[in-house]
Design a protein that fits this description.
The chain has six helices and nine strands, in the order βαααββββββαββαα. It is α+β, with helices and mostly antiparallel strands. The strands form two sheets. It has a five-stranded antiparallel beta sheet with strand order 1-2-9-4-7. A four-stranded antiparallel beta sheet has the order 3-8-5-6, with no helix packed on it.
Length: 226
């Protein structure tokens, strides 16, 4: 059975330890402790036993997920689970591309049977608000998130390019313009958001063509090399 663990019942030390493997939260904690604490406060920790469903294909919701412990299996297809295509491991984020592109889940995610228990950190993306708003999440918080997302999406697309140099999609991500204006501004945030949408769309095209892990399931924001 899914067990909701209210964050206020976990010690600060326990939460910090759980989130220390998530680059987004690590960077946010270093940048703005109050914003870090706010996002933790409005999130929840979920524990899944082997075989339990975490995300179901076709669902639409407002949650962004980070795997803190364990392993999750990703399935695609028309059956209840479909075909196993990949695994999500601790430190990875999933569900963010679905939120970015405003689409339903394109894969089913199950707690893998090889893990005794999988711990997932769920963040309500509504706290990010609009791009122009600075409450409850600040401009800097959004910049940290989108910088990580754009950096990693470009990295994943470069991996595809290196494996398929002659493919028509190989160089399209390089045509997505980088931001060249003044950093730490709303202009930078808007540019990052536009880049993220364009890059995520390209990643989805790659994944659909090659039958790999759907971009919706794991965008890999937290797979980015540090």
């Amino acid at each position: 059975m899914i067990e909701t663990k209210p964050n206020h019942k976990l010690s600060k030390e326990s939460l910090d330890l759980l989130l220390s493997g998530i680059p987004f939260f690590k960077a946010l904690k270093q940048q703005d402790q109050s914003q870090y604490e706010y996002l933790v406060k409005v999130s929840r920790v979920l524990a899944y036993e082997p075989g339990e469903m975490v995300v179901q294909k076709g669902e639409q919701d407002h949650w962004l997920f980070f795997l803190l412990k364990g392993k999750l299996a990703v399935y695609v297809g028309d059956k209840e689970k479909g075909d196993l295509v990949n695994f999500i491991t601790a430190g990875e984020v999933f569900g963010d591309i679905a939120q970015l592109l405003q689409q339903s889940r394109t894969a089913t995610v199950i707690a893998d049977k090889s893990s005794r228990q999988s711990i997932v950190f769920a963040l309500d993306v509504n706290v990010f608000g609009t791009l122009s708003s600075t409450v409850p999440t600040s401009l800097q918080t959004k910049l940290i998130y989108y910088r990580n997302m754009v950096h990693n999406l470009r990295w994943k697309l470069e991996v595809y390019r290196s494996q398929h140099l002659q493919h028509p999609l190989a160089n399209k991500h390089r045509q997505v313009k980088l931001f060249t204006g003044i950093k730490d501004t709303q202009d930078e945030l808007r540019s990052l958001h536009e880049q993220a949408i364009s890059l995520a769309t390209l990643l989805t095209e790659w994944n659909e063509e090659f039958g790999n892990l759907p971009a919706e399931a794991v965008s890999g924001v937290n797979e980015m090399p540090e």
